[in-house]
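Data availability (excerpt). The following record was deposited with the supplementary files.
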Amino acid sequence: MADIFREVDEEMRQENLQRIWSKYKVLIIAAVVALLAGTAGYVGWQEYTARQRAAEAERFTAALTISGQENAEQAIRDFGAIAGEATYGYAALARLEQAGLLAEAGDLQGAIAAYDALAAKSDVAQPFRDLAIVLAGYRRLEAGDAAGAATSVAGLVEGNTPWRHLAREISALAAEKQGNRAEARTHLRHLVDDTEAPAGVRARAAEMLQALPE
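Predicted structure:
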């Protein structure tokens, strides 16, 4: 009888963990994209000539306006064109916006491909490339590819990238989805104990750690 109660309790904890992921995944992705927007805008300001900057800013703003009017298909095309023709900050931002719209439209594989394309560009600043890897990792989790998510972010977990804590969060979620509970708990415990991790990441890790049985 005790085994039955333990099994029921474990199932409830698993459901809680899934609810936590469902609750936070949109906020996580939105937050990191918003953070990059300010960074990329600054990089763009520094690296463009005034004329190039003005023209590309105008195109980017126009595409944002179109996306705000719920014309996602046109905005996806416009951001794709900007990403292919612009350089540095605006190109990276455009690719991120394109990927986000693809995901919102239900095309997770298209979104992942867009993130992967940005991550592979050697002429893009490394923080942008690392962020693309992280966002692709979250989308891979959403698409049910836990193994791919874990593999894609593995190189960021122990590095000095500003996105390393999010990479570890992805690793924890991927491990749990693959049935490796011990590894998941190790990643979560590391985040809880890491005083350099953002407060929101630590709070989520603590909540997930509590929901995940040993």
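Summary of structural features: The CA atoms of residues 149 and 166 lie 12 Å apart.
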